[in-house]
């Protein structure tokens, strides 16, 4: 296995359209560099990066849930409305019934879970297509938001705003940086190093040859480099700012859900259901339970995203969450998920979401109007997926693959292979 | 009869698929006004031959010559053959359930008045055609609201809407009950008096004996013989002999069975069709399996073997009506797939691509998919253990792949089948039900699969093999049950098993003395 393949695998895991995701990383870097030049360095300033995170974290949180919904073979059009509905319920509860704000957050999550369960019930147990259920939900909860809020805005208290607009406190010695962000960065570096070491050990235990040391080294150096750069940017903003609290919530969710989808039995069942529902059923997977779970989970994450948005804008309003579902869905597909389900990763969706976010941000910094931004985003989505579809039909994995092929050093196979191995041809169907 | 002029002659038709010769020098002569039956085991090439004739495989895709009404015919597609009056009615009905009888009869062939469809004419002609096939229904009735037997008649009416000269019916009575079948056969006889020629493909030999004028028998893609029913005094036994006579030596690994006590028993198992509520797919089935025994289920396509297996495996098919399952003398419940797995059952499906595997998965994930808890702790998968398990099966079953991280879709059919076997062996089953375990895989891989089956039996497991290839069952199994139309019609020990006897029991509802 070549180092590059290995790198891809370790970044994303094996069960996905790795090509598209890897391509997206390149695209992401290219977009960042392009806008860095076009905006005279505005893109990578501390202020802008912090703004991007707090402005898009809720979309990325939605993308995590949406990824699982899409992998299971469904879609959720209601997330924007659910977010708005939860937002107004929580804001009203705090304002009218003096619910303390931490309890308000819990209330919001419960409301999201109930809405998700409601939709999951129709999808999983009645068998109504999720497209219809959530289209209905989109209307239902948008209307519900305006009904409860009288189509008015409802402010939320200071404490509540932390989850959307808050920063880490300034503690410790005056280093000129936000110390807690620095600490997080340090933990991140250590975690990455530990993971790399762990991955090597795991491969050894599997009896496979780990990637050459230099590849591990390079990979580690790149990742640590990125973390250090990001840490310094986020810690080095205007005093009183840091990595936003919403960004920390996002990172936590990404870690939890990546682990869940890749490494747990129930996470894998989502892929099994989306990949071949009947086969999954005949392997003892309870389809209804899985479908119910992904829809409920989506409801909870939509509620969280809604509350973060309300916290950030200090009030809940009737226009909250408009067309969020489209951004979340686009992020997931750009990030390599298959429309038919069964493929996709959390990290890929986050990369897809960041591509959209930075594109948006960069164009805005350049003063491009909303009209053009939308058109460009639409084309990016179309081309990203079209490129992947085209490459698959050509029997290639991805453009990036074909570009890098000449430089690839084919290492020994991952495990000893019996002498009579003849590699089966991909295209010859089984004789029937 | 043989005095009638030749309507259709197919000369040395050869058709190859990648790696398989489906038809080799097949000849077929059909005379005007006769009912010509084509017989053969599953996979003998009957359907392929008809697809060549009807232009599904266009001219140039096969070698050989088709002469139709005295001229060479070169059909580029189905439309071309239909224009010459050759109409094929496939086993799976090609009707649209949500459309009316009239709409279906004229689908793609609508009478027009200018740009618009002339519904008045269509309706009038639909009534005429329905009368022709002996069907009394309102032409506005939706297809889904009439029974399968009537649907079959609609298909024939549809053929007549196209001015048919040669009618081809592929297993026309497979889905029909006795009286509907009889009605259909009567209809064919009536057509014969009107000078319409029919080719009928059927597994039901009693029907063929009753209706056909001549019979062409195919085996392994070759023409074996053509019989004149009256002149040659053909009966079912004669047809069976033609269908199955084949050399079976050395296709199976050496193996000495070591059969123990009965440990698995099914009693009175009755299951209803999931949609057609008046049909039973399993009728009071009783069977048992001993430890270390390989038990075969012989039957024709649609006999209800798969349905029986899947209904046992967590009620995955149809509606369970009655019946009990005993394992080691204790009654067990198999209401869900997980319950079946926990009780030591494994079902390897006949259609590995559609329902056996997730083709997006890689090998190691597929192998552990049916019992992931075995390599997980607190719901978290131990990747090292997963890899080790997959690696063990790769070596044990000789799955040909550079690595267990490879995608399933990259494997050949035989290797995919081994992955499915590994997946179910991993669940530590006591009873494995293998449904057509060698379908669509080459001879070498078949031999290996047989070896795996023997090893499983040697470990004391019970193995049930469902197969449409009689020689396979005879070569592999210690005991064979025959199934016909949802009923277990007989039980034959290995020593007494011969193809003709099995074929007879597979084509009759009468219970045979064991």
Question: Which structural class is indicated by helix and strand composition of chain B?
Answer: alpha/beta
Number of contiguous helices of chain A: 17
The whole-angstrom Rg of chain B is 25 Å
> How many domains make up the coordinates of chain A?
2
The CATH superfamily of the largest domain in chain B is P-loop containing nucleotide triphosphate hydrolases
Overall body shape of chain A = globular
Protein name (chain B): Sugar ABC transporter ATP-binding protein
GO molecular function, one term (chain B): ATP hydrolysis activity
Main location (chain B): membrane
Subcellular location (chain B): Cell membrane
Molecular structure report:
The complex is a heterodimer of chains A (432) and B (514). Chain A is an all-alpha fold. Chain A has 2 domains: 3-166 and 264-407, Orthogonal Bundle (ABC transporter involved in vitamin B12 uptake, BtuC), CATH 1.10.3470; 172-243, no CATH class. Helix content of chain A is 70%, strand content 1%. Chain A has helices at residues 3-12, 18-38, 46-71, 79-97, 101-126, 130-149, 158-165, 179-205, 213-235, 245-263, 265-275, 277-282, 287-313, 324-334, 346-365, 370-393, 399-404, and strands at residues 154-155, 315-316. A two-stranded antiparallel sheet of chain A has the order 1-2. With 514 residues, chain B is an alpha/beta fold. Chain B has 18 helices and 24 strands. In chain B, the strands form 6 sheets. Chain B has a 6-stranded mixed beta sheet with strand order 6-9-10-3-11-12, sandwiched between helices. In chain B, strands 18-21-22-15-23-24 form a 6-stranded mixed beta sheet, with helices on both faces. In chain B, strands 2-1-4-5 form a 4-stranded antiparallel beta sheet, with helices on one face. In chain B, helix 4 (119-132) packs across helix 5 (148-161) and helix 9 packs across helix 18. The model of chain B has no long low-confidence stretch (mean pLDDT 87). Classes of the chains: A mainly alpha (432), B alpha/beta (514). The interface between A and B is large, with 45 and 59 residues.
């Amino acid at each position: 296995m070549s180092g590059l393949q290995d790198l891809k695998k370790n970044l994303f895991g094996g069960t996905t359209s790795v090509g598209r995701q890897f391509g997206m990383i390149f695209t992401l870097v290219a977009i960042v560099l392009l806008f860095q030049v076009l905006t005279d360095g505005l893109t990578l300033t501390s202020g802008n990066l912090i703004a991007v995170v707090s402005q898009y974290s809720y979309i990325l949180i939605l993308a995590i849930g949406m990824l699982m919904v899409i992998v299971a073979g469904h879609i959720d059009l209601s997330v924007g409305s659910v977010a708005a509905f939860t937002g107004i319920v929580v804001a009203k509860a705090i304002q009218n019934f003096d619910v303390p704000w931490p309890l308000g957050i819990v209330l919001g999550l419960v409301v999201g879970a109930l809405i998700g369960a409601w939709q999951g019930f129709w999808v999983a147990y009645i068998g109504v297509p999720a497209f219809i259920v959530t289209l209905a939900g989109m209307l239902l909860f948008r209307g519900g938001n305006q009904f409860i809020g009288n189509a008015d805005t409802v402010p939320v208290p200071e404490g509540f705003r932390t989850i959307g607009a808050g920063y880490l406190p300034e503690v410790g010695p005056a280093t000129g940086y936000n110390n807690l962000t620095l600490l997080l960065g340090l933990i991140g570096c250590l975690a990455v190093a530990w993971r790399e070491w762990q991955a090597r050990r795991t491969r050894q235990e599997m009896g496979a040859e780990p990637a050459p040391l230099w590849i591990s080294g390079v990979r580690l150096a790149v990742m640590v480099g990125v973390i250090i750069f990001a840490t310094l940017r986020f810690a080095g903003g205007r005093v009183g700012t840091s990595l936003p609290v919403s960004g920390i919530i996002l990172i936590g969710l990404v870690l939890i859900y990546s682990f869940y989808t890749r490494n747990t039995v129930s996470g894998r069942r989502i892929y099994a259901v989306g990949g071949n529902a009947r086969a999954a059923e005949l392997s003892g997977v309870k389809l209804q339970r899985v479908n119910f779970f992904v829809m409920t989970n989506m409801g909870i994450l939509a509620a969280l995203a809604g509350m973060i948005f309300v916290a950030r804008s200090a009030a809940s309003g009737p226009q909250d969450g408009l067309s969020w579902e489209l951004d979340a869905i686009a992020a997931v597909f750009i990030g390599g998920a298959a429309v038919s389900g069964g493929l996709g990763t959390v990290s890929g969706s986050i990369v897809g979401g960041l591509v959209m976010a930075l594109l948006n941000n960069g164009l805005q910094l350049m003063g491009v109007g909303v009209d053009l931004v939308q058109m460009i985003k639409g084309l990016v989505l179309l081309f990203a997926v079209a490129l992947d579809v085209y490459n698959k039909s050509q029997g290639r994995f991805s453009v990036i693959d074909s570009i890098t092929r000449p430089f690839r050093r084919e290492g020994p196979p991952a495990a000893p292979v019996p002498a009579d191995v003849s590699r089966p041809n991909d295209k010859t169907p089984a004789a029937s | 009869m043989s005095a009638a002029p030749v309507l259709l002659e197919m000369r040395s038709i050869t058709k190859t698929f990648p790696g398989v010769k489906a038809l080799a020098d097949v000849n077929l002569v059909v005379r005007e006004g006769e009912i010509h039956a084509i017989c053969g085991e599953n996979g003998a090439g009957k359907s392929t031959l008809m697809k060549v004739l009807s232009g599904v495989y266009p001219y140039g895709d096969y070698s050989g010559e088709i002469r139709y009404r005295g001229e060479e015919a070169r059909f580029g597609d189905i439309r071309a053959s239909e224009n010459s009056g050759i109409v094929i009615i496939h086993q799976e009905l090609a009707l649209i359930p949500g459309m009316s009888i009239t709409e279906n009869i004229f689908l793609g062939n609508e009478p027009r008045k200018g740009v618009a469809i002339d519904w008045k004419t269509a309706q009038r002609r639909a009534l005429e055609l329905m009368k022709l096939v002996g069907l009394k229904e309102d032409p506005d009735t939706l297809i889904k609201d009439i029974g399968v037997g009537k649907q079959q008649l609609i298909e024939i009416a549809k053929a007549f809407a196209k001015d048919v000269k040669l009618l081809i019916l592929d297993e026309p009575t497979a889905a029909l009950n006795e009286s509907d079948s009889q009605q259909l056969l009567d209809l064919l006889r009536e057509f014969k008096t009107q000078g319409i020629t029919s080719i009928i493909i059927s597994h039901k030999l009693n029907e063929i004996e009753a209706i056909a004028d001549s019979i062409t028998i195919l085996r392994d893609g070759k023409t074996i013989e053509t019989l004149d029913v009256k002149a040659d005094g053909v009966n079912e036994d004669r047809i069976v002999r033609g269908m199955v006579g084949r050399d079976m030596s050395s296709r199976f690994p050496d193996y000495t069975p070591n059969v123990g006590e009965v440990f698995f028993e099914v009693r009175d198992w009755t299951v209803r069709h999931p949609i057609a509520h008046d049909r039973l797919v399993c009728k009071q089935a009783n069977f048992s399996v001993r430890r270390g025994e390989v038990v075969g289920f012989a039957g024709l396509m649609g006999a209800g073997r798969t349905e029986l297996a899947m209904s046992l495996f967590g009620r995955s098919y149809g509606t369970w009506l009655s019946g009990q399952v005993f394992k080691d003398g204790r009654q067990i419940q198999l209401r869900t797939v997980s319950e079946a797995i926990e009780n030591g059952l494994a079902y390897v499906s006949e259609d590995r691509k559609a329902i056996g595997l997730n083709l997006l998965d890689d090998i190691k994930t597929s192998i552990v998919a049916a019992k992931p808890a075995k390599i997980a702790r607190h719901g978290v998968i131990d990747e090292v253990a997963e890899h080790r398990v997959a690696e063990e099966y790769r070596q044990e079953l000789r799955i040909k792949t550079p690595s267990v991280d490879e995608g399933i879709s990259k494997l050949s059919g035989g290797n995919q089948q081994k992955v499915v076997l590994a997946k179910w062996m991993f669940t530590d089953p006591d009873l494995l039900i293998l449904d057509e375990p060698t379908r669509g895989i080459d001879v070498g891989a078949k031999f290996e699969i047989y070896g795996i089956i023997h090893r499983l039996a040697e470990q004391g497991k019970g193995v049930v093999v469902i197969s449409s290839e009689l020689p396979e069952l005879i070569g592999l199994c210690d005991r064979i049950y025959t199934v016909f139309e949802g009923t277990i019609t007989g039980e034959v020990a290995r020593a007494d098993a011969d193809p003709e006897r099995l074929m007879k029991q597979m084509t009759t509802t009468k219970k045979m003395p064991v």
